[in-house]
Amino acid sequence: MDQDQFWRIIDEACGRDQTRSEEWDRRLQDVLIRHTPDEILDWDRIFDRLAIRAYTVDLWGAAYVINGGASDDGFYYFAVG
């Protein structure tokens, strides 16, 4: 799996409808279960790599300003959720 396929899975599961974000986890599971275990592990590795890259001072500052603070968990949900 490459990063383009990773984003296609995100798009299929989550789409562009921000109002239905509470359903994303279930829909993502529904999409991923159709893939092989190796593809799911590859997807997870890409997710982890992108999440780590999101940990920047600038993005943390944006999360802090937008949310009125940013704990570790709060930043994680802001950056990847």
Structural summary, described in words:
Helices cover 73% and strands 0% of the residues. Helix 1 crosses helix 2 (24-32). It has one domain. The model has no long low-confidence stretch (mean pLDDT 88). By secondary structure, the protein is an all-alpha fold.
Question: Nutshell version of this structure?
Answer:
By secondary structure, this protein is an all-alpha fold.
Features of the shown structure:
5 helices, globular, 81 residues, mainly alpha
How is the secondary structure organized here?
Elements: H1 3-14, H2 24-32, H3 37-54, H4 57-67, H5 72-80
Helix pairs in contact: 1-2, 4-5
What Rg, in angstroms, do the CA atoms define?
A: 14 Å
Oligomer: single chain
Largest sheet: none
Number of domains: 1
Inertia-based shape: globular
Cα-to-Cα separation, first versus last residue: 21 Å
